[in-house]
């Protein structure tokens, strides 16, 4: 859980609730003009002038959403913020503020929370979002993180999930599947470690995958990239649960079907190598992996020329009539019905 | 946990994540003009026109903040919403939206969550706030609720904690201490029940106290009441942790001291009777009880005539120079230094 097992362990009860909150939040900076009042009153006060306000929230539970045996707390903090900011980016908005609430059991010393908050602070600085509130309390078991992300957008810039039309092109940023395979590599190393704690993992062949799992980034650059290309997506979503699942969300909410072309799905060469090593089909991973935080969106067919050679984007398919359904067209030119096999948080 | 122990128990896994969310959220109505898009996309979209946006968030953990053995789930849901709305009222704002995230262990059947969401829905309807988002996931232990409340206010209407001046009058709405004594009554009944499960509790003498504990209300009426009186508070906070603790927040952030008069503290007659029965000093309960969700605020001395006979408000003291400190002036005319003994969520 802690990077250095010998470091100091300060009990949280030594500081008291308000002492703890002051200690943990003192490094948060205010960068956004829209933040009139951040932490320290009954509520934060924000001013978005004529812009619309975007709100998204996530709840992360130790043992359900993360495993501290291979997820360093600093990375967890960073990733928790990124995952929420990604939802604002998926509306074609600009993330501006977050609230962060945590509950911790008393197995966590102050130094562990400092690491976690270092991750929060790194992400807040990287994405220039202000931490404007939160709650710090105790849990009966493990670590719980609840983040609400706030963003802004001009009304005419907002992109919903429900605007895709037949013949629109389906486009994705970056590459897919790497975060999931990074997790598989880390889980394998955990098992090796449990058998032989003196084994030193050699992870050089997996650096990209592990980074995608432990330190993902939200695509807050896409809004500007698309504006420069003079493209406004017709629908958009971020890929948190896996490509298949997200495509089906766009299809369902837009009342369209989809043809997704296997050969077009962008996959990093390292993912291909590791999938061979693990004897897993890389398309399956890209379809169902999740946690890539890339943006998936549709554009008008007439925008194809603007985007076709852009290294940030890959056209992976096109929308069709709803009655045709949503299918993967394989390299062998067979049609397979897309299913949402993405990670499902509710399991019995 | 459930009001009827014989009722149907449907496993959450039967519905799947999206089925569960759809089932639980279908009764939420949209009432606010400012809600452009609620549940169903990556983020909600809100339009506050020229008003400022207020945001507050809380995290509630079973076994830390609530005990399901005497807190019915419907009441818990209602109270969780009220506690957050109260923070928006404490800024002199109008609560408009909330997000609700829950994590539950698989000991909870669907019917339990339905009760909880019935409470959420009742409160949302009562306060006309729109549920615009959230997260539903599994926990390793118990029930976790995270709520973010959103509100709006004109810039010139917002009241912070830091605006109190020397000689300002200290005013409180409603009466204090009842919620805490309601909890004591319920805890006593729980112990009686554990000794003899066939014992039927007689709670007629405690109805007001128990209602204040199980079904508190946020004072969203105070903003309008004060506007009609042509009073704008100089500072304001809601009483969630106890009067002492909240007075000290106002004093610290406003750089003033305070004289609080014991004889002025508004206490319900039922509280006095029950305090005698429990052999507890009712002033101590009013000072440290918490969870009353009344509003505590300061007004200019010149506004005294406007408020002095108003049944909704009680002037309980006045602010003094910071160097004089914050004191309770007892009925015997002795000065006792105010201390924040309010409930502290971080305990080892």
Q: How many helical elements of chain A?
A: 10
CATH superfamily of the largest domain in chain A: PurM-like C-terminal domain
CATH topology of the largest domain in chain A: Phosphoribosyl-aminoimidazole Synthetase, Chain A, domain 2
Major beta-sheet overview of chain A: 7 strands, mixed
Average predicted confidence as pLDDT of chain A: 91
CATH class of the largest domain in chain A: Alpha Beta
Radius of gyration of chain A, rounded?
21 Å
> What is the rounded distance between the termini of chain A?
27 Å
Question: What fraction strand of chain A?
Answer: 15-25%
Features:
homodimer, about 350 residues, alpha+beta, 60s Ribosomal Protein L30, Chain: A, Phosphoribosyl-aminoimidazole Synthetase, Chain A, domain 2, 2 domains, 7-stranded mixed beta sheet, about 30% helix
Describe this structure in words.
Chains A, B: It comes from Flavobacterium nakdongensis. Chains A, B: InterPro entries: PurM-like_C_sf, PurM-like_N, PurM-like_N_sf, ThiL-like. Two copies of one chain form a homodimer. Chain A is an alpha+beta fold and 348 residues long. Chain A folds into two domains: 12-157, PurM-like, N-terminal domain (60s Ribosomal Protein L30, Chain: A, 2-Layer Sandwich); 169-337, PurM-like C-terminal domain (Phosphoribosyl-aminoimidazole Synthetase, Chain A, domain 2, Alpha-Beta Complex). In chain A, 32% of the residues lie in helices and 24% in strands. Chain A has ten helices and 13 strands. Chain A has helices at residues 16-25, 73-89, 110-127, 178-195, 207-214, 222-228, 243-254, 269-278, 282-288, 304-307; strands at residues 35-37, 44-46, 52-61, 94-104, 130-138, 143-153, 169-173, 235-238, 256-261, 295-299, 313-321, 326-329, 335-337. In chain A, the strands form three sheets. A seven-stranded mixed sheet of chain A has the order 8-10-7-11-9-12-13, with helices on both faces. In chain A, β1 (35-37) and β2 (44-46) form a beta hairpin. Chain A is globular, with a radius of gyration of 21 Å. Chain A starts with 15 loop residues before the first helix and ends in an 11-residue tail after the last strand. Chains A and B meet through α1, β2, β3, β4 and β5 of A and α1, β2, β3, β4 and β5 of B. β3 of chain A pairs antiparallel with β2 (44-46) of chain B, so a sheet runs across the interface.
């Amino acid at each position: 859980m802690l990077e250095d097992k010998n470091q100091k362990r300060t009990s949280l009860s030594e500081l008291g609730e308000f002492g703890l909150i002051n200690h943990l939040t003192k490094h948060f900076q205010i960068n956004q003009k829209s933040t009139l009042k951040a932490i320290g009153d009954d509520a934060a006060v924000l001013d978005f002038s004529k812009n619309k306000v975007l709100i998204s929230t996530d709840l992360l539970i130790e043992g359900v959403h993360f495993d501290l045996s291979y997820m360093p707390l600093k990375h967890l903090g960073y990733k928790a913020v990124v995952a929420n900011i990604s939802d604002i980016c998926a509306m074609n908005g600009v993330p501006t503020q977050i609230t962060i609430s945590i509950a911790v059991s008393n197995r966590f010393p102050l130094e562990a929370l400092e690491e976690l908050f270092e991750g929060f602070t790194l992400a807040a600085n990287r994405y220039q979002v202000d931490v404007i509130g939160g709650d710090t309390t105790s849990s009966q078991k493990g670590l719980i993180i609840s983040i609400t992300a706030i963003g802004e957008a001009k009304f005419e810039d907002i992109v919903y999930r429900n605007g895709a039309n037949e013949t629109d092109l389906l486009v994705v940023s970056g590459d897919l599947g790497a975060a999931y395979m990074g997790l598989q590599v880390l889980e394998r190393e955990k098992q090796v470690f449990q058998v032989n704690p003196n084994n030193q993992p050699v992870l050089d062949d997996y650096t990209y995958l592990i980074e995608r799992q432990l330190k993902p980034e939200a695509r807050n650059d896409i809004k500007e990239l698309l504006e420069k290309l003079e493209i406004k997506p017709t629908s958009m979503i971020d890929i948190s649960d896996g490509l298949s699942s997200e495509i089906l969300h766009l299809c369902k909410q837009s009342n369209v079907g989809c043809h997704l072309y296997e050969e077009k799905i962008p996959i990093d060469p390292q993912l291909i190598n590791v999938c061979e090593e693990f004897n897993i089909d890389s398309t399956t991973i890209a379809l169902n992996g999740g946690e890539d935080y890339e943006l998936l969106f549709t554009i008008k067919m007439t925008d194809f020329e603007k985007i076709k050679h852009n290294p940030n984007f890959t056209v992976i398919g096109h929308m069709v009539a709803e009655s045709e359904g949503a299918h993967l067209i394989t390299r062998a030119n067979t049609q397979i019905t897309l299913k949402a096999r993405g990670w499902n948080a509710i399991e019995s």
